[in-house]
Amino acid sequence: MRVRYVLGAMALLLVGLSARAEIYRCDGAFGEPSYSHRPCREGSSQAVPLGPTRDAEGAGLRASERAWLREREQQRAAQKKRPKRSVKTQSETRQAEIRQAYRCRTKRRALDAVKRELRRGYKPAKGERLRARRRAHADYIATFCS
Question: What is the helix (H) or strand (E) element at residue 93, kind and residue range?
Fold first, then answer.
């Protein structure tokens, strides 16, 4: 059983070592580049590095592009420092008005239900809770609904 594990581990190591092959860049007859896993016949091959490069960030960018990125990062940092203004569009304002109107209708219905229950009769322990609910609904309507 252990032999299988040892052989499996060795196979994985060998596969990992062989996967570390190089890629060669060769120039064709008319100057066009070609890539291969074998060196060029003429001997003018260049090995192309594989894997992630550890160059400076944005090393493949032009100087103007790097300057633009720096300026953009500065603008974003400045935007984060500024407090956001609450600018609502007409549709958002209208939707807020519709939601508030719905809440007012709901509170009025709840107030009517509490008043009906108070008129119908109740047990003494429930009376104080009903009156408190009536006051709360009436206060909400007076404050937020016209």
Answer: helix 90-120
Q: Which residues contact 44 (CB under 8 A, 6 or more apart)?
A: 26, 27
Instruction: Round to whole Å and give the CA distance between 110 and 103.
Output: 10
pLDDT of 52 strictly over 60: no
Q: Is the pTM of this model over 0.85?
A: no
Q: Which of helix, strand or coil describes residue 122?
A: coil
DSSP-assigned letter for residue 38: S
Contact 35, 25 (CB under 8 A): yes
- Structural element, H or E, at residue 66: helix 63-81
Distance CA 132, CA 138 (A): 10
